[in-house]
Each structure stands twice: as structure tokens, then as C-alpha cells.
Amino acid sequence: MSRLAVRKTYKLFIGGAFPRSESGRSYAVTSPDGDFLANAARASRKDARDAVVAARKAFPGWSGATAYNRGQILYRVAEMLEGRRAQLAGELGLGRAEALASVDAAVDRLVWYAGWSDKIAAVHGTANPVAGPYFNLSSPEPTGVVALVAPADPLLGLVSVVAPVIVTGNTCVVVASEPSPLAAITFAEVLATSDLPGGVVNVLTGRQAELAPWLAAHMDVNALDLTGVTDADLALRCEQEAAGNLKRVLRPVPEPADWTADPGLTRMTRFLETKTVWHPLGV
């Protein structure tokens, strides 16, 4: 007898679990040719608030972990992503060779950031010369909870904005690519099986215009990355909302962005704060 295939249900990823949207809503995801692919959960403001609560709860443990441990976990994410190579390639809506190359680039990007986990403090921190009998040391510390609007590139772009935020000890809430959210949820499944503590990364699918302003205005979000926002009016509104608690804001990247380029250190240092300590000599 022939059998019916079990179709995958694409849910949200909040606090290490995969709930449906509390609103019960979903929206159709289609291929570039207009063919139906799947229904994705359409997150609500309540889902966004739940995600922020989960991210804040995870922050003390994740920021308190050693940099080496965070790097090990990111490397484990890369290993698990490599194992899902074929599945993710099929969800990117690209030609086979291009899709596989994109997955490979995402794996390599994770490995690259994993290597920086215990080195960024040495590069970004410093011992400051002072006129007095003191040690004066500056060291980077994570900002806190970062809200991210992911770019259109559904995997490499997503990894390129999430990895630098979490490797430095922040936690995050991500609004996935609105037209291409499927790979983001499969990536969340990778995270859920990679020793990453629940709540460090939370993934929402749905409408940018509905979710981004509420995350921008949320008083328990410390920073905002608007990389994936293409609507200038929406970006301006989010920046205005973010001023309520003086969030750090990373402005949108002009499309089309080249996510294969050398990422540099900017995305890591953007969401770090500098702590400076004075200590008397000889004590």
C-alpha cells in the first residue's frame, strides 16, 4: 500500500521548545516560482514577548559561561549543520549547486566565529596607561538581549547575524526572513540538538512590520539589529522606538548584501560594552 508522507510543521523556536504561535495563525511560504512549499507560523506580539523573556532568562548562564565553552558549542552547531546539509539545501529555493555552496559557507562561518570566542577579548580589551600607581584594564562584556531582523538570505545571512551576537555572550530574538523562513526553523532544530542552552537563540517567523517595532520598543531588549529591514519607514520607526531605553542600533544593510565577504569583527564588537577596572599597584 502507498503511504502518505508526514509533512513537516514549521513552528516557532522559543526557550528551546517549538511552540505554535499563540495566535494560531500561519502563512503560506512559496517558492520563487510561486509554488506552495509549506505553512509557517505567523508569530504575534505575545510570541515576541515570550521570546524576550526566554532570552533574558538564558542570559546570565550564557554570558557567564567561559568563552572557550561558547566556542565549543558554536563548533558543535557547525558539525550538526553539516549533517543537515542536504535537507537545508532543499529548503533554500536555489539551484542544487548554489544551495549546497550556501550551506557550506554557513558551516564555515560558524567555525570562523567559534574560533574568535576566546580571542575577541584579547583584541578588543586593553591595558590603559594612566598617570598614577594603578592598573587600568578595559575588557569587553556582552550587552544583553539583542533583537535581530534577519536578512533575506535565509541561511548564510541568518548565521552571519546570529553567530557574532551569541559567541560574545549575548542572547537573541531573531525575526527570520519573511519570504523564506523554512531554513531558519530547520537551523533552530540544529541549535536545539547542539548543546546550546534553551533561550540563547529564539526564532520567530512572520511579518517584519508586525514584530520589529514591538521588539524595538521592548524595555528588556538591550540592542537592535535591523540588518534585514528593507522598508525605510519601518527602519525609521524601529530606531525611534529603540530610543526609549537607549538601545544600541545596527542599521539596515543595503541589498543585495554580499554575505560571502569577510565578515570582520564589527558585528561582534557592535554588541559589546567595555568595562574598565582600576586597581592600585602593590595591593
What does this structure look like?
It comes from Nonomuraea roseoviolacea subsp. carminata. This is Acyl-CoA reductase-like NAD-dependent aldehyde dehydrogenase. Pfam families: Aldedh (PF00171). Keywords: Oxidoreductase. This protein is of the alpha/beta class. The protein has a single domain, classed as 3-Layer(aba) Sandwich (Aldehyde Dehydrogenase, Chain A, domain 1), CATH 3.40.605. Helix content is 41%, strand content 18%. It contains ten helices and ten strands. The strands form three sheets. Strands 7-6-5-8-9 form a five-stranded parallel sheet, sandwiched between helices. It has a three-stranded antiparallel sheet with strand order 3-4-10. The protein is globular, with a radius of gyration of 20 Å.
